[in-house]
Amino acid sequence: MDMINARELEGSDRLRWIGATGLKGRCPRCAKGKMFASWLKLADRCRRCDLDYGYATPDDGPAFFALCFITFPLIFFVMWVELSFEPPFWVHILTSGPLMVASCVLSLRPLKGWLVASQYVNMAQEAGTEALFDELDRGRAGELESRRTRHEQAD
Ligand SMILES: [Zn+2]
Fold it and tell me: Which of 10, 26, 70, 111 could form a disulfide with 21 if both were Cys (CB 3.0 to 4.6 A apart)?
């Protein structure tokens, strides 16, 4: 079987792979099997390559991203419509309401697929970068601490 090792992809190839598999609900390892057993429920494992989806813990990530990137921008759009055109209230009930619900519901599956695929592709990298992130966090905490003491001394 000629299989790409998605974890060895870098930069934009990696992002393209995550998009091509995750957003379409395809297995992030073989890109052929289906990721979902139903609308939002993940399959137990890939039927093509036997990838175990037990690693996947998107939790409320999809809902978070749907809120940030779909619902909030839509709220601003709806407010803009309201302020610019001052339509009667029933216009919002017929258009804005269904639009927001539908866009949120429809975006959950591709967002979940995207998160699960990124999790798979980035898993190997996470283990290697743990120390780096620890160091970064420590460095930042130290910097904040010294800034605070400097500030207190100035008072
Ligand atoms: Zn697969």
Answer: 26
